[in-house]
Amino acid sequence: MVPSSKTLPRDETALEFAGPWRVVVLNDPVNLMSYVVLVFRKVIGLAEPVARQRMLEVHEQGRSIVWTGLREKAEAYAFTLQQWHLNTVLEPDEAH
After folding, report:
1. Complete domains list, the chain, with CATH
2. Listing from the earlier edge strand, what are the strands of the sheet with 20-26?
């Protein structure tokens, strides 16, 4: 008999995947600012003013959190942004 998921103990690994994750774009010397805004709008669906604000954060501060949510979706966004040649990493959102 296989135990149900309700009786299985939750370990730290399961908790790592459950919480919110951040998609962080890092600055690079290659991509034009207008290109970064375009990618944020197409991939994440940000409105023009928000995409510009995030791009400026990347440019001026070296990084910007462009999306926060469940890990699976965060991984998909990070992968797609990397396919568009943006320097992107995932971080656990420990604030929540």
Report:
1. 19-92 (3.30.1390.10)
2. 63-70, 20-26, 87-92
Yes or no: say if 45 and 53 are a contact pair by the CB < 8 Å rule: no
pLDDT tens-place string over residues 54-84: 999 999 999 999 999 999 999 999 999 999 9
Distance between CA 68 and CA 22 in Å, rounded?
4
**Residue listed under structure tokens 């951040």:** 22
Cβ–Cβ < 8 Å for 31, 67: no
Place of tokens 């919480």: 19
90 and 84 in contact (C-beta within 8 Å)?
A: no
Nearest CA among 30, 16, 94 for reference residue 58: 30
